């Protein structure tokens, strides 16, 4: 809003006055508030017009408060401090619901959560769900880690990094004696597929070149138990190698496999400032982790 209606004083006017009075400089205050100096001068003038007094003496090289300005400054400091305490109290109660269908990538997930919580005071609630993408669309989580290509236009997708793949089989499988497997050889084996959130399935090969036998499961637990029972082999991101997911399976190096995308998905209409800060933390962590 340009000119104040009816002498209304807004929060932006208080912040502008506090910064100029504290720093005794329009230039330094404009830099701190990330606004232009002319815009800051207009904001201070609006405040003085609304109050009907001069708050700042601009006659010398250094900006100084008038007697009225010093009186007002004491009250403004208390108001802004109390507001900050209120914001901090609310943020401590707030949370971002992060959905995931199975193992979170490491160390990215741990770094992202720690970075975000330190910077904002907002808690990240981790919510395990069989279909993380559906959970976002249904509003059961605010944002989700999703693997593989996302074709839905109902969500916004931010790509983070790619994961390498490995094969996984039962300890009783003939494959367990092999040191590595070629991607082109995978279709020769029955393939166990998680149809809800799996990253590898018949769709991973050109038409007619995928596995002839497919064992479908609907979540990660069913998938890993089916592999352990030697109903077929699976293909999984290599994060699983670093985690003890099941004593009845063995991992096999997979040569020539395409990498799997890891992204964040959230509703495009979300205007939550904390959600945007979480995405920023996630992207920064992905870059620093080198994943």
From TrEMBL:
Which PROSITE patterns does this one have?
HTH_LYSR
Indicate the segments forming the HTH lysR-type domain, all copies: 9-66
Q: Does the UniProt entry include the keyword NADP?
A: no
Asked whether the keyword Repeat is assigned, the reply is no
The GO cellular component terms are: protein-DNA complex
Mind telling me which Pfam families this protein's record contains? HTH_1 (PF00126), LysR_substrate (PF03466)
GO molecular-function terms, A-Z: DNA binding; DNA-binding transcription factor activity
Keywords of this entry: Activator, DNA-binding, Transcription, Transcription regulation
For this protein, the record's PANTHER family field holds: LYSR FAMILY TRANSCRIPTIONAL REGULATOR, TRANSCRIPTIONAL DUAL REGULATOR HCAR-RELATED
Q: What does this protein do?
A: Required for the induction the katG gene for catalase. Involved in the response to hydrogen peroxide.
By sequence similarity, the record places it as follows:
Belongs to the LysR transcriptional regulatory family.
Q: What is this protein called?
A: Probable hydrogen peroxide-inducible genes activator
Q: Which organism is it from?
A: Mycobacterium florentinum
